Amino acid sequence: MTITLDNLGRRFNKEWIFRGISKVIDPLHPTVIFGNNGSGKSTLMKLITSSEIPSEGSIKYQIGDNVIPEDKVFSYIGMATPYMDLPEEFTLSELLQFNLKFKPFNDGLGVKDIAEIAFLSDSLNKQVKVFSSGMKQRLKLALAFYTKNAILLLDEPTSNLDQKGIHWYQEQLVKVGTTKTIVICSNAKEEEHFICNQIIDINQYK
Ligand SMILES: Nc1ncnc2c1ncn2[C@@H]1O[C@H](COP(=O)(O)OP(=O)(O)OP(=O)(O)O)[C@@H](O)[C@H]1O
């Protein structure tokens, strides 16, 4: 999937959050969006998911020569964000099975495989609401990484992760490699997302 941002801008009331972002994001150009708190990273992410509309400019989605309409883009996206809630009444096993009803996991992986990948095998029968914040974050990330999708969008992926979790996250990024179009929002250190070879520094688009 190639995502082309053309002179993108968003304002709320009279205040421009950013203007003039033009970039091509594709599997060969994993991209990190950097900026301080409140700079507009999540807003740009919402434009990319097509859940909000730009105030100016446009976004085009293409697979080869096929243009994907904006209202169909969501079905191509796997995402993990702080503002996305997990269905916490489910046990982990129930949640993963529920997920499988809508989309398969990569490479024919099953419920137990995903739990193992996320170091959650011992918690298959636990309700998600009793998971620690780090466990919930690994689960969100594992779902985003391993559900079959062309686009991977991660907002603050290392939040709530300890050093071991950050290392695990980086290993998953390397495994995805060029198989998906990757966009990551972060105010953390650049090296945490070392596979990204394109940076959108929101502060440059004020
Ligand atoms: N629906 C909205 N209405 C008005 N202002 C908004 C709305 N959504 C976001 N904003 C404003 O846009 C700015 C950017 O917010 P955004 O959440 O995109 O920042 P961020 O870079 O993701 O921040 P953080 O790192 O703290 O998550 C903020 O000033 C915020 O108040």
From TrEMBL:
Keyword Ligase: no
SUPFAM superfamilies found in the cross-reference section: P-loop containing nucleoside triphosphate hydrolases (SSF52540)
Domain ABC transporter: 3-206
Highest taxon, organism lineage: Bacteria
Gene3D superfamilies recorded: P-loop containing nucleotide triphosphate hydrolases (3.40.50.300)
Key word Zinc-finger present: no
GO molecular function, one term: ATP binding
InterPro entries given in the database record: AAA+_ATPase, ABC_transporter-like_ATP-bd, ABC_transporter-like_CS, ABC_Transporter_VariousFunc, P-loop_NTPase
PROSITE patterns: ABC_TRANSPORTER_1, ABC_TRANSPORTER_2
UniProt keyword terms in alphabetical order: ATP-binding, Nucleotide-binding, Transport
Pfam families per UniProt: ABC_tran
Full protein name: ATP-binding cassette domain-containing protein
